[in-house]
């Protein structure tokens, strides 16, 4: 079983939703970004953007040990 440690940094309204700006998680096996969203209790219907460094990643991305994942809410306005 592969265990990976990742840091999740939340931005905007997500800080209030989770109650923290930064969370350290241990991931097992093939847990992906979608599983992280679920574990943090974020609304899966909300439009979110995921970044590692300067690269956009998607919910099916399986983070590597040591990744720092930034999660941003996407707002739409008129």
Q: Summary?
A:
The chain has 78 residues and is α+β, with helices and mostly antiparallel strands.
Overview features:
78 residues; alpha+beta; 5-stranded mixed sheet
Detail the topology: elements first, then pairings:
Layout (H helix, E strand, L loop, with lengths): L2 E8 L3 H5 L3 E7 L4 H7 L8 E5 L2 E3 L10 E6 L5
Parallel strand pairs: 1-5
Antiparallel strand pairs: 1-2, 3-4, 3-5
Describe the structure.
A hairpin with a 2-residue loop joins strand 3 (48-52) and strand 4. The protein has one domain (3-73): Beta-grasp domain (Ubiquitin-like (UB roll), Roll). The protein is of the alpha+beta class and 78 residues long. The chain starts with a strand and ends in a 5-residue tail after the last strand. Helices cover 15% and strands 37% of the residues. It is globular, with a radius of gyration of 12 Å. Strands 2-1-5-3-4 form a five-stranded mixed sheet. The longest helix has 7 residues, at 33-39. It has two helices and five strands; from the N terminus they run E-H-E-H-E-E-E. The mean pLDDT is 92.
Uncertain residue ranges: none
Shape: globular
How many domains in all? 1
State the share of residues found in helices, binned by percent. Answer: 10-25%
Oligomer: single chain
Q: Quickly name the level 1 CATH class.
A: Alpha Beta
Task: Specify the CATH homologous superfamily.
Answer: Beta-grasp domain
Span between termini: 48 Å
Count of β-strands: 5
Strand order of the largest sheet: 2-1-5-3-4
Mean pLDDT comes to: 92
User: Which second-level CATH architecture applies?
Assistant: Roll
Radius of gyration: 12 Å
For the biggest sheet, the summary is: 5 strands, mixed
Total number of helical segments? 2
